[in-house]
Write a structure and sequence with these properties.
The protein is an alpha/beta fold. It folds into three domains: about 110 residues, Tetrapyrrole methylase, N-terminal domain (Cobalt-precorrin-4 Transmethylase, domain 1); about 110 residues, Methyltransferase, Cobalt-precorrin-4 Transmethylase, Domain 2 (2-Layer Sandwich); about 45 residues. Helices cover about 40% and strands about 20% of the residues. It has eleven helices and ten strands. Strands 3-2-4-1-5 form a five-stranded parallel sheet, sandwiched between helices. Strands 6-7-10-8-9 form a five-stranded mixed sheet, covered by helices on one side. Helix 6 links the parallel strand 6 and strand 7. The radius of gyration is 25 Å and the shape is elongated. The protein starts with a strand and ends with a helix. The model has no long low-confidence stretch (mean pLDDT about 95). The structure holds S-adenosylmethionine. S-adenosylmethionine binds next to strand 7, strand 8 and strand 10.
Length: about 280
């Protein structure tokens, strides 16, 4: 009988944000692999959990994974936790999970807090989202990454550290369309939690307005790009030619087939052309 590796989510600030199943699991397993054993002890002591800990961080992940595999193969159950939130999400864990999976051993998640999802749930943006994690630290690389993300048709979610928040928000305001909105979520679930939804162009001033604002932990959420106004010239020409011969619905359908553009965008534009 081999053991199971449980991937356990822990609080992102408020110690009460932990599931009953997470507590039961952390108590029941033989070993807990922790990003930082001293940090983990604070949570474990709070809940009276005495399970032994093993360090598993980005600098020893390969060796620690080998140790986990030995324990699991010997029939022990093991939990993996990170300093906060869900392991392997901008945190160590993915390489260990891959190694344990490759060894054919059982892995199961114990879901719970995640800063990105918590921020998104309180942001009020609909539709698909893209989790970009941390942007590059160097200005040039960060701006290149943002240029690539700018046209992605999705809400964008970023993590940011306090010493880079001002630069990142300034880059977002400078590079993205001014009508896009941003949600700045800081210190989620903690005493000084603050969540603001603003036009992107006003975000640098908002951040600078109070001395405490650039401090703490941040999730930034940026709304999807605004819909493109109008069609490109060639698609417009094709649609008009078809409209001269066909009813609106048929013209839009054929134009969509020819141009590859969405049928509803062409239909809406065809109605505008007919109307004028
Ligand atoms: N694995 C974690 C999770 O599931 O949320 C994320 C770990 S990542 C190393 C840490 C980053 O997550 C912080 O720099 C910040 O961007 C974000 N974060 C974590 N806790 C947060 C909180 N309470 N409020 C806002 N952002 C937080």
């Amino acid at each position: 009988m081999t053991g199971t590796l449980f991937i356990v989510a822990t609080p992102i600030g408020n110690l009460a944000d932990i599931t009953l199943r997470a507590l039961e699991t952390l108590k029941a397993v033989d070993l807990i692999a922790c990003e930082d054993t001293r940090h983990a002890r604070r949570l474990l002591d709070h809940y009276g959990i005495r399970t032994p800990c093993l360090a598993l961080h980005e600098h020893n992940e390969r060796a620690a994974a080998a140790r986990l595999i030995d324990s699991l193969a010997a029939g022990q159950n093991v939990a993996l936790i990170s300093d906060a939130g869900t392991p392997a999400i901008s945190d160590p864990g993915a390489r260990a999970v891959a190694a344990v999976r490759a060894a054919g051993l059982r892995i199961t998640p114990i879901p719970g807090p995640n800063a990105a999802i918590a921020a998104l749930s309180a942001a009020g943006f609909e539709g698909p989202f893209y989790f970009a994690g941390f942007l590059p630290a160097k200005a040039g690389a960060r701006q290149t990454a943002l240029a690539a993300l700018k046209t992605m048709p999705a809400t964008l979610v970023f993590f940011e550290a306090p010493h880079r928040i001002a630069e990142t928000v300034a880059d977002l305001a400078a590079l993205f369309e001014p009508e896009r909105e941003i949600v700045i979520a800081r210190e989620l679930t903690k005493r000084f939690e603050e969540i603001a939804r603003l036009p992107l162009s006003t975000a640098p001033a908002w951040l600078a307005a109070e001395e405490h604002r650039p401090r703490g932990e941040f999730v930034l959420i940026v709304s999807a790009p605004p819909p493109k106004a109008g069609l490109d010239a060639e698609s417009e020409r094709i649609l008009k030619l078809l409209l001269a011969e066909l009813p609106v619905k048929q013209a839009a359908k054929l134009a969509a087939g020819i141009t590859g553009l969405p049928k509803n965008a062409l239909y809406a534009r065809a109605l505008e052309i007919k109307g004028s």
